[in-house]
Prior knowledge:
The structure holds 3 protein chains of 3 kinds. Helix content of chain A is about 40%, strand content about 25%. By secondary structure, chain A is of the alpha/beta class. Chain A has a 6-stranded mixed β-sheet with strand order 6-7-8-3-9-10, with helices on both faces. In chain A, helix 4 (about 105-115) packs parallel to helix 6. Chain B has helices at about 10-25, 35-40, 40-50, 55-65, 70-80, 155-160, 190-200, 205-215, 285-295, 310-320, 320-330, 335-360, and strands at about 100-105, 225-235, 245-260, 270-280. In chain B, a hairpin with an 8-residue loop joins strand 3 (about 245-260) and strand 4 (about 270-280). The longest helix of chain B has 24 residues, at about 335-360. By secondary structure, chain C is an alpha/beta fold. Chain C has 2 domains: about 15-235, Bacterial phosphonate metabolism protein PhnH (Rossmann fold), CATH 3.40.50.11310; about 245-290, no CATH class. Chain C has 7 helices and 12 strands. A 7-stranded mixed β-sheet of chain C has the order 1-9-8-5-4-2-3. A 3-stranded antiparallel β-sheet of chain C has the order 7-6-10, with no helix packed on it. In chain C, strand 8 and strand 9 form a beta hairpin. In chain C, helix 2 crosses helix 3 (about 60-70). The radius of gyration of chain C is 20 Å and the shape is globular. Mean pLDDT of chain C is about 90; it is low at about 1-10. Chains in contact: A-C, B-C.
Amino acid sequence: MSAPLLEAARLQLRFGAVRALDGVDIEIFPGEVVAIVGESGSGKSTLLRVLAGAMNAEAGTVLYRDAEGEAHDVHALTEAGRRKLMRSDWGFVHQNARDGLRMGISAGGNVGERLMAAGDRNYAHIRAEAAEWMARVEMDPARIDEPPKNFSGGMQQRLQIARCLVTSPRLVFMDEPTGGLDVSVQARLLDLIRGLVSQLGLAVFFVTHDIAAARLLAHRIVVMRHGRIVEEGLADRVLDDPRHAYTQLLVSSVLAA
Amino acid sequence: MYVAVKGGDAAISAAHGWLAQRRRGDESLPELSPAQIEEQLGLAVDRVIAEGSCHDRALAALAIKQARGDLIEAAFLLRAYRNTLSRFAACEPIDTGAMRVQRRISATYKDLPGGQVLGPTFDYTHRLLDFALAAEGLPPAEPEEADAAEATMPRVTELLAREGLMSRDAPGTDEAPPDLTREPLPFPTPRPLRLQSLARGDEGFLLGLGYSTQRGYGNAHPFVAELRMGEVEVMLAPAELGFAVSIGDIAVTECQMVNQFAGSAASPPQFTRGYGLAMGHGERRAMAMALVDRALMAQEMGEEATAPAQDAEFVLLHADNVEATGFVEHLKLPHHVDFQSELEKLRSIRARWQADRDAAPIQEAAE
Amino acid sequence: MNAITPRNAPGNTPEHAYNFAYLDEATKRMIRRAILKAIAIPGHQIPFGAREMPLPYGWGTGGIQVTAAILGPRDVLKVIDQGADDTTNAVSIRRFFARVANVETTTRTAEATIIQTRHRIPERPLTEGQVMVFQVPMPEPLFRLEPRLAETRRLHALGDYSLAQVRLYEDIARQGESGSAYNHPVMVGGRYLMSPSPIPGFDNPKLHNSPALMLFGAGREKKIYAVPPYTEVRSLDFEDHPFKPMRAPQCCSACGSATSYLDEIVADDQGGRIFVCSDTDHCAETQGQ
């Protein structure tokens, strides 16, 4: 197997007396979907932000290997370097579409911005790519000039995903991308994400409190509690044969639901 | 050839002549002297020295006369003059604790060492037009206690600080303070520059912002710990002498506004202060400044900063009325080149819009 | 405190009361240092300690300070506003320098060593050794997209101008072309996005590889920036929607020019229009030929 795309070791972070991250080691390989599950307050969203370099840990390292195989210490990058990664190799899908979209700008402009940030200066090409990506996330490309506020919550998330994927990233961070949506909308969105991830061979860190979503998408599952990883393994193994008591609780509560 | 706004030379001269005539007004009435303005419109003069950032009441009175009573224009005149003065040295910090107080009130204590001194104030006057003033007449009766109180009065905030209930400001350093008039404002802005900016800011703007913090835009619960006005001595230590000498007295108004602070992991709950200082007699300015100063500390104190008055860039970049009036009034200057390019742009966009419409398949009107 | 006697007290005329070109020499040196920095980093805004000037903010205080800092007794100064030498603000600023610096002034572009301008670049091609001084109301090209200076400074440092490019994309998507008719942003030397000041788009190409030094002064916003001679200046655009300088399609009714930038003048109350050159010197020159 190739080297990990991203690997983090011994991450530590406290908020006052609370240990948000307590000695976390985690890695992801190219094309792999890793779900990070746990209750709210377990540290899973903090972990995602630290992995993406959006927040610094007090101790520990995060290494990213680029397409040339060169490793970069994510937290030692300059802001310029981190932003370059964010608009080329990486993508981030926020739980709230408002955090990931420009609400005053059309759907096409939102998707096209990443291409422009990457240096594309051909209007027709940018527009064609934006339309194609809207189609790929099952949005109507005829609505390319409409602002995000005209779209439903599920459609806004699709738009956010299109905006992320248009520059063909290698690694995508998703923070509860289906949170706050209706159950039927969630299911269709998860289905869409699953299709895109396998077509594009994306590596995805996927934070969720929803065990069903993790089952649907993830190859591997990492269970967090109180800032520690209490269990990890292949998705079906963790879900069908949970070893840690906390994981058993999480899994049974979904079965009960 | 038709010329608009051209032949400007003659027009400017004529306009200035007309302005001079208007300034003088009806020549059958006696001309106003700067000395009269200085004495009888003292609060206008005080506003001009504050916003003009130049404590020279005689020049401010002249500026008010020249500006036909337009106080922002007068502040502008004074500032432009001030800018040409050489800068010899910076004076020692003035000691408002040693102020010869003409007015001193505290809203937080019923009585306190030194007492409450009401002084020359509009407070508790009934706002009824006094028609006696319309007739020139006898001088007003001598007030009973016109002399400045001689005893030095302790600052109220110091009483609280001794008990640990009030945060103390960091002690000053020997470093020369930054100077707003020499260097552009940096962001984030250190407090000395924020205070300088507020001290010369537009009184109306500060008043509106201060008011907004009381109405929920900024979550302030202020008390006037102390408001004092009076004369302080200005001390200067010339390098050749090596010690400070007095170079005169100026009147200032100082306001210390107490505000709650919830405390944080690093510091216990305690009062904090907003500070206002105005050259001359300017209570409204000093109080509004103190409110805004405190609001601008929100970020440093880890408070949620959501209101306009807590937004340093918004407040400090828009408080200066000389800057503001210039930029608003510059819209009077000809802009016809830009407007012409807008005309051509709009025509082009409309032509495209029309062409797109014409090209669209025509729908037959239903019979 | 009345310790200091006003220097322009009666008997002491302003001409004698002020230093050459109004500003004191220390201030001029401070401004010249900012100008040198600006030239060294083309298109980058340099903060400077702008002084209160005897003209209002927004009326050219930045340009006046730059001119005052570089003006020498042998300079020949031209001042234009809207392209014309005889608009009121141009007259006022020219008078100011004639009064406080006693320099030679001219209306001829060819004769001037320093040209202070508001909203135009002369039609006549500039030459080496000439300096254009632009009056700038708002130096930040991103201010309508991001009003916070702390944030725009970061975007400049990162060279992140996708916001401006997206705005242009939106304009084209909505109306088929760029929405800005004047003050259209330019990339300088492939690095910094810069406001060319509110010149019409028609004048933007004149900034590119100009033999003249271009200095920009913003007094109220306290910034100076520059385009050195022979520097690449590209208007922001898309490959397939190239920047298009625009002018009224008419000819000047005074000199007949079909290439100069025109002012549209309402000639009667029936909506009749005539078009004349905005650059008065250019118009006079063409008429003389």
